[in-house]
Amino acid sequence: MKRLLISASPLLGMLIAVPGFAEDAAPAAAAVADVAAQAAAAAPVPNKGDTAWLITATLLVVMMAAPGLGLFYGGMVRAKNMLSVLMQTLVVFCLLGVLWAVYGYSLAFTDGNAFIGGFDKLFMKGVTPESVVATFSKGVVLPEYIFAAFELTFAAITPALIIGGFAERIKFSAVLIFMVIWFTFSYIPMAHMVWYWAGPDAYTSAEAAEKAGAVAGFLFGKGALDFAGGTVVHINAGVAALVGAFMIGPRLGYRRESMAPHSLTMTMVGASLLFVGWFGFNVGSSLEAGATAGLAFFNTLVATCAATVAWTVIEAVLKGKPSMLGAVSGAIAGLVVITPACGLVGPMGAIVMGLLGGVVCYWGVNGLKRMLGVDDTLDVFGVHGVGGILGALLTGVFAAPELGGTGVYDYVANAVAPYDMSAQLIAQAWGVGTAVVWSGVVSYLGFKLIDMTIGLRVSEEDEREGLDHAAHGESAYHL
């Protein structure tokens, strides 16, 4: 005890001898603490609830691809091609997931120009567990890794949708090469044009907003609204499927032989997985577990219900009997139509969009397809293309506050801006037209290049045998 007092005595002496020093140091220490506190307050931290929701949403979209889309598409082809469709959807998703990490994320979500981003995050360079990205609320952020993973699922499942346009007759190697081309030159630029912006915190004044707008994507700058992918996903993929169906040609025996789905049970299971997974797709696009997520959830649910009912009723009236294939097609049509609008319209607007989607997509599959004379095997354009176009345009109508929509938020005024429906419809038309032309040109050139080199189509012998055995040496079923 004595030794402790002796060793402490010099310190006690210093404290007694220099009281003025202690008094001077106290304000300085307080000032440093204030600066540190201000810095901490200025750097927002991801909310654990938002992060947990985005992780869940990402998993739901992965479920849409494998097994959802594979079972949905696979059940609609003939038994001899079931495994080939499962193989294509799975491998395409995984291949493009890798390419997203290598260069896709950087080109889609970094500064570049109005049409494409840059190479700042090539190979995920600079992305760390601590790095964050903006959401749609000022001062709210997400971990960048989970945002990149969420966007990866969009980038990987969208090209997989295209497979349905030319199923049962295309080479597996041709599928993979085309998807790399289309992903690079169509999906990534469309994602950048529609979804890239500086984030809400950049909009502090009119001058700041002008500078932020200068680095935004082309269609974002035009004011086009696309909450979860009407243009980027559905129109983009639907047009590519249509071009592919035209260029590859119809299946052998098309309109002469029975090509009925081999397992509507599988299709129903796949459609149900897509239905559930779509809530990750649409609701996750809010990027936060908040009020907008709740709106997107409710709208996705009621629009899908309305479209299913509409398709079922119109099929019963026109064909005499409602079908299981028609009901699930109606559900997918409703999901497609509400995708660009789910966080922007009110519930009654969502129901009207769903009803119209069921009717118009029914026509796209049963009327437009015959008018075009194309063998779009699994009606990708009739549902995704037509539904995406309808949904994108109707977003401009039902996003109006007077019709129950949210309007367009002004981040400078921190309030909803006055809504001009005619101007918004023009902006939506810009989005639709750009998606149709861009995807159409890229798809044509991609298919043409492959046809001139390795060829697009399997041999007649392989097509008659079925792609399960001819392309993969396996069978989905052992009968």
From TrEMBL:
TM region positions: 52-73, 85-103, 145-167, 174-198, 227-248, 260-281, 293-314, 323-341, 347-365, 377-400, 425-447
Keyword Transmembrane included in the entry's annotation: yes
Main localization, broad class: membrane
Domain Ammonium transporter AmtB-like: 52-477
Cellular location(s): Cell membrane; Membrane
Signal peptide, first to last residue: 1-22
Pfam families xref list: Ammonium_transp
PROSITE patterns: AMMONIUM_TRANSP
Transport found in the keyword field: yes
Coiled coil: none
Record's bilayer topology term: Multi-pass membrane protein
Family: Belongs to the ammonia transporter channel (TC 1.A.11.2) family.
The protein, known as: Ammonium transporter
